[in-house]
UniProtKB/TrEMBL annotation, chain A:
InterPro entries: ACT-like_dom_sf, ACT_dom, ASB_dom_sf, Fe-S_L-Ser, Fe-S_L-Ser_bsu, Ser_deHydtase_bsu. This is L-serine deaminase. Belongs to the iron-sulfur dependent L-serine dehydratase family. It catalyses: L-serine = pyruvate + NH4(+).
UniProtKB/TrEMBL annotation, chain B:
NCBIfam families: sda_alpha. The keyword Iron applies. This is L-serine dehydratase. Keywords: 4Fe-4S, Gluconeogenesis, Iron, Iron-sulfur, Lyase, Metal-binding. It is an enzyme of class 4 (lyase). Its cofactor is [4Fe-4S] cluster. The lineage of its organism: Bacteria, Bacillati, Bacillota, Bacilli, Bacillales.
Length: 221, 293
């Protein structure tokens, strides 16, 4: 399946260097984690694999990941000073080099925490600044991180998916890609929906109130 | 996006021939159809990328230094030489070299660039474009078109092989970038879509097997100079294709060969800083010095 669609995946992104996969891609994965967590972060742990583990200091991958969880974009001049800004924001960061085998050379596992909640996400930087989120809190998925998206944790019951798509249809929001994963029959399941636009607060509220919906997180563009 | 969809260079060239339009136009039409955007939006966004490239070149030509001090200042040297001498390789070629170096020096200094297709290979395309534009009497619109042409070829490579050094070695990164630039020069010079494809093939064939071996894992040594030499190759290949020279191996097969070579390339040569120049005594010493600070 084609992973690169837009001409701006090739002629772009506009970014702070030095590496599209190790710097810009890392910013994007960090940003996706921040938006999906959607809470104050007090502790962030980054497990680095493959080329990320070997070269992260040289490429500024560590700085870039931290910039991402601060919500910066890939062309933000503050990236270079992200550690200072994280400290000011009260975020403690830790990096762990993990040399176990992974399917993709540029892989990171991010754990975000505060006193109440944790999020665990696995992201891959697939080249040219493009990324893929392949795991979220134990669920396998394929989220590009390049488009707005909503992730809906729901009970695996009849009508859960229909209740979400019905709301999106009512607000005339187009679905670009959709994927449903569950850990077991009848248990918690995760809907990953990539959209053409960011959703308005009223849409979000409607979705949160929908039948069988447990939690909602979003990636904004 | 129907009739503007292409997966291979063969399909891309066929669409351009059937519709009697330049390759850049196929790319523009495909982007418009795919995202349901008006032409101004697609064209305007590419113009912004062009502006970023121009700013990076200007900044690099004034002189920058990377955090490590490994790179920076060479663009100024080359540019000064260019003003005081008639370069043996010709003014256009060396101008492309200085502008490619300028861009990559800015990137290494954690400055703002436009990835083309990656940040590590960000110098080839703008270096070539801003060097050939005067001789080819290109308008600003022609320059934007140049970028769409490079993007069309880049999309095919990215989806059928790879464009990152970590996945396929430098052949995938600077190799792709310089081949993309070569194809776009041909279109800007009035060559046929087919000639663009030949220029692309001629360039990438000469890049096959090129490893990604950055000293200390940094996008500095040898990346900056590889972009410079990649830019020069793009212009030479374009001239060859414009002269009517063709590639015996079709473009899509060249891309496939690059993919196979990259697949079988040891991990030590894929951006891990464990082989090639990174593993030389000097490369290792520099890495130790940089990381002890």
């Amino acid at each position: 399946m084609a992973k690169f669609h837009s001409v701006f995946d090739i002629i772009g992104p506009v970014m702070v260097g030095p590496s599209s996969s190790h710097t810009a891609g890392a910013v994007k994965i960090g940003r996706a984690a921040k938006f999906l967590f959607d809470q104050d972060i007090t502790y962030a742990r980054f497990h680095l694999y493959g080329s990320f583990a070997k070269t992260y200091k040289g490429h500024g991958t560590d700085v870039a990941l931290v910039a991402g969880i601060l919500g910066y974009d890939t062309d933000d001049a503050r990236i270079i000073d992200a550690f200072t800004y994280a400290k000011e924001a009260g975020i403690h960061v830790e990096f762990i080099e993990d040399h176990s085998a992974v399917p993709h050379p540029n892989t990171v596992r991010i754990e975000l925490m505060n006193g109440h909640e944790t999020l665990e996400l696995v992201g891959q930087s697939i080249g040219g600044g493009k990324v893929e989120i392949v795991e979220l809190n134990g669920f396998r998925l394929h989220l590009s991180g390049n488009h707005p998206a909503i992730l809906v944790m729901h009970n695996d019951r009849f009508g859960a998916i229909a209740s979400v798509t019905e709301i999106l249809a009512r607000f005339e929001i187009n679905i670009g890609r959709m994927e449903v994963n569950r850990k077991d029959v009848g248990k918690e399941a995760l809907m990953t929906i990539e959209l053409d636009q960011n959703i308005e607060p009223e849409v979000e509220e409607a979705l949160r109130g929908a039948k069988h919906i447990l939690r909602l997180a979003k990636v904004v563009d | 996006m129907g009739s503007y969809q292409f997966r291979t260079v063969k399909e891309l060239v066929e669409i351009a021939q059937q519709k009697s339009m330049p390759l850049s136009e196929v790319m523009i039409q495909r982007e418009m159809a795919l995202y349901e955007l008006p032409r101004e939006d697609v064209f305007g966004r590419m113009e912004q990328q062009l502006n970023v490239m121009e700013e990076a070149i200007e900044r690099g030509l004034k002189g920058v230094k990377s955090v490590t001090g490994l790179t920076g200042g060479d663009a100024v040297k080359i540019n000064t030489y260019l003003k005081e001498h008639v370069p043996l390789s010709g003014p256009v070629l060396l101008d492309a070299v200085s502008k490619a170096v300028a861009t990559n020096e800015v990137n290494a200094a954690m400055g703002k660039v436009c990835a083309t297709p990656t940040a590590g290979s960000a110098g080839c395309v703008p270096g070539v474009l801003f060097a050939v534009k005067d001789q080819l009497k290109a308008t600003r619109d022609d320059m934007v078109r140049f970028l769409f042409t490079t993007g069309a070829f880049g999309l095919v490579v990215a989806n059928n092989a790879f464009i990152s050094g970590a996945q396929g070695g430098c052949q995938a990164e600077v190799g792709s970038a310089s081949a993309m630039a070569a194809a776009a020069v041909v279109e800007m010079a009035g060559g046929s879509p087919e000639a663009s494809a030949h220029a692309f093939s001629i360039t990438l064939k000469n890049m096959l097997g090129l490893v990604c071996d950055p000293v200390a894992g940094l996008v500095e040594v040898p990346c900056v100079k590889r972009n410079a030499l990649g830019a020069s190759q793009a212009i030479v290949s374009a001239d060859m294709a414009l002269a009517g020279v063709t590639s015996v191996i079709p473009t899509d097969e060249v891309i496939s060969a690059m993919y196979q070579v990259g697949k079988r390339m040891p991990v030590a040569f894929k951006e891990t800083a464990e082989g090639g120049l990174a593993a030389t005594p000097t490369g290792k010493r520099l890495a130790r010095e940089i990381f002890s600070n």
